[in-house]
Amino acid sequence: MEFKLPELGEGVSEGELVKWAVKPGDVVKHDQPLCEIMTDKATIEIPSAFEGTVATLHAKEGEIVHVGQILLKFETEAAADQAKKVPTHIEDVAPSVSTPVNQGAKPAPAASPLNIEEPTIAASPATRKMAKEAGVDLNKISASGPNGRVLREDVERYISSGARKTPAPAAAPKVPRKAMPAPAAGSEQRVPFVGLRKKIAEKMRASKDHAAHYTYVEEADATELVQLRAHAKEIGERQGVKVTYIPFVMKAMVAALKQFPMINSSLDEQAGQLVLKNYYNIGLSIQTEDGLTAPIVKSVEHKTVLELAREIENLVDRARKKQLTLEDFQGGTVTLTNAGSIGGLFATPVINYPEVAIMGFNKISRKPVVKVIDGVEKIVIRDWTYFSISLDHRVVDGGIAAEFMKIFIKYIENPGFLLLD
Of 53, 185, 319, 394, which is least surrounded by CB within 10 A? Predict the structure, then answer.
């Protein structure tokens, strides 16, 4: 029997087979991972929709596979039993009896290669997987999608509310990797350029080929931001939420973007149109062991700092566990990258094309600066940082970038203003 690549998401017809999780001879259960497929920036784990033994694999790691393409062939226990009953000698065959065909009978519908049972709750496979791993019953979740469809956001909202009753399944124990011998001095190694690393290369090349990059850098006194974050961190700890600087930076970005909508846009070159977006979905660059990925924090303008902190923590956790879905990458309007926890003064980030801007947030450090206090210049110790924004010069001129950063820095230096928006 054949197992074909199922639908991967709306508008997605192919992906790269990054890794097989099974091999010929393996006995497979329902929902057991078969392989990992990389589409755009999301790695999707393809679960088994059958029980049986893997016979042959029909695609290689690193190969581009298409929806509907045969991934593997397998044998079921019933098929194996039937094969044992096939006669091997002519004398074992019973005399043939002609059976009249019922012309009115309709053939039984072919079983779906993707679903053994028709689900009672409308939800995508990725949403179902997320709910299952979190121990959440989909029947208890209020659906916000069309036609009663449960969305990933509904599951996250349910989990965040603390209403979950079913204990989450225990995580499978990690199998230690075999120690690899150290390469000999002066030798070379060739590593397959596949998976997320390859997708990053494709995206970066496309960005550099299309957008006319330039970067604008500005410094900021982050002393009040540091103090506000310290208070928010205490509140967050009492609610089980880790509060970083990122939610505040995102809120400041939205406040400034509302005044400069050109930066929250994308260029539709084929249609010859600039698409100005009146919603604020900020992509967040996250470093994983496989490379950089940028899932989307949606509707930032409608969420509180604590809500954003909770969502960001969830995204980072799922990114590092390779549990992000296609839905996590859809609808971005602008991107934020943060290397501040590692270090660096500032950087010149590459635009997440077809967006026209990416903000770089860097380390905060204590330094002496000259401030005018009561009309007198004094040297004081302040928390200081730099922000760098890369823009597409085809859309955003340097003067606009400077004005935008001026407003953005105002909110960073006076985060209390965010309460007035």
Answer: 185
